[in-house]
User: What shape does this take?
Amino acid sequence: RKEVEQDPGPFNVPEGATVAFNCTYSNSASQSFFWYRQDCRKEPKLLMSVYSSGNEDGRFTAQLNRASQYISLLIRDSKLSDSATYLCVVSSGYSTLTFGKGTMLLVSP
Amino acid sequence: GAVVSQHPSWVICKSGTSVKIECRSLDFQATTMFWYRQFPKQSLMLMATSNEGSKATYEQGVEKDKFLINHASLTLSTLTVTSAHPEDSSFYICSAWPNEQFFGPGTRLTVL
Assistant: This one.
């Protein structure tokens, strides 16, 4: 079983749509959770951390379910600029990050 | 946020040559830097953890004699791909850690 699993997509949505990505992780000792965004041929950039209580940053909402080892990202009112690959990232301790393969999102006019 | 640079941004070389990639933290000191590799449509895979003033820690399956890491100062880590072969062609990304991982822009290596 892969450590961090994501649906690779692509998710094709029109502008203004709401889209949700899911991720599961296998290491129950994982302590920190993140969503990163990666544009084509670029480095990943931190989108947001994910907390058990859930957190929101503008149009983006992240949720964590530790019991199910499941993380989600919801994007509301999609913009063309949201087109990218979204990486689910898990850390089990100091600084070591484990990346999922990413979910590709394509937002069309 | 903190800035991490990489040089070169891309390199094309012949099989058998060695390639050095530099990773610099521009506005902070980093005792620890990380080197990742990403093949097309694959996830970033940690290759090694680079520690200033000591030997790097390599992940399982990564040949330390092939991927030489030197972290001689608090702002510079280098990765040298020795005797590169076409299967080493990949996107190499470094990151540094002041409270969170900041990634460099990556180096795209193509070995002919």
Chain B has a mean pLDDT of 93. The interface with chain A takes residues 32, 34, 41-46, 49, 91, 93, 97, 100-101, 103-106, 108 of chain B (CB under 8 Å). The CA atoms of residues 6 and 23 of chain B lie 5 Å apart. Chain B is about 0% helix and 50% strand.
